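U., I forgot to send this yesterday:
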Amino acid sequence: MVSFTAIPSPSSVFSAYASVSGSIMLFQTMVNQVLPHQFQNYIASVIRYYFKPRSSTMNVIIEESDGISSNEIYNAAEIYLYTKINSNIECLKITKRPKEAKISIKFSKCEKIFDSHDGIDVCWRFSCEESKKGTSKMADEETGGVFWEPEKRRFELSFNRMYKDKILDSYIPFILQKAKDIKAESKVVKLHTLSAISYSTSIVWESINLEHPCTFDTLAIDKKLKKDIIDDLDRFVRRKNFYRKVGKAWKRGYLLYGPPGTGKSSLIAAMANYLKFDVYDLELASIRRDSDLRRLLLRTANRSILVIEDIDCSVELPDRKGPNLHGDGRHHRDQQFTLSGLLNFIDGLWSSCGDERIIIFTTNNKEKLDPALLRAGRMDMHIFMSYLTKDGFKLLANNYLNIDNGGHFRFQEIEELIENMKVTPAEVAEELMKSDDADVSLGGLVNFLKRKKIDDEEIKDKEGDGVEVHKGKKLKLDMSSNGDINIDSE
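Result:
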């Protein structure tokens, strides 16, 4: 049976409540009068923290910059989230620069994008505070005290707080790597050239978009050689840890040699387009001192190709064994660029100032080069760019005339002519461009090859005993009714 004698009377309850309220008011008055205002706010925030119900959601703020430099995580998130845009997005900004193939897409308003990683659901929210007008004493002289604060853009990443470690240790690195891959895939390859160099002027690289369309698919060289080059490039770019392990600079040297018109420049463009590496075209004739060359190296970016074309005739390099002298024995003060400086640039201490770089020399006369330039470690792979082969011709016919492998009655005759003579891909390509009609174009190519064969034989005869014969037989030309040139022997 319930006893009511244990229940306090209303008067005692009211008395206790009044006593507690008075104590609280007395404590509040003491706090306001004794403690500093900042300390009062701190105590209030602690009380709110411990007595406020805690949410299971954690928010991470990723601002565009820290006030000095850009935030790499923000940039990566922006690139990555473009791939997650769907029809629920209400407003986007789009821009396109001249000569760029793709449209640039940016977020415009506060938008939400949902994503999932390793079974964890996350929500991204983009926000942007518009530019604000303000005043500043620092800007009085130039702007009359008026300035505009730049707009503040940021991402807010929300997720269940129990997955905090996975988000920071796995998801964020995943986004950084994914953005790097996307950026590399859409990168516009640049061609850099030297614009100014003197003792008083800083070295400046000027750049334009490399719009050379050549790829390994359209390059008319031997199939096996093409595969060897691609395999070597793939092996090079994936061996960062290997180069560090063996203590070598992460670079690769290629020597392209062969007759003019065999596709050396086209191969360089194909390599740049394949790797998405910028190209730096270095003219040695513009270099006056070894120190200029070192400064140039420091101003080239990683993941780039440095090209020195026609190295055998671009500059006369002084010998490493002796001083550079005039004919009368005096020192040449204007020319201080030496072979030693070039070698140190390629394979010395200065060559380690950068990663993932390719150095390419081209020449028409390999035998004229100093052997020190050609050894392994400087020019690691020597690539002979030969005259056109049958496989190369088939590829050119497909590129220029859309004729598949062996798809024309002229092919056999053209292949036999190519096999027994020296003709460059550039020469054949020029003939194939003269008409869109395959019959006309290939017929003209047959006549060109026959004329070239006769000219080559005449040159050989003149270099010999002066008698114009071919294997002991005189050559006779005859123009047929269909316009073809026939070669008969007497």
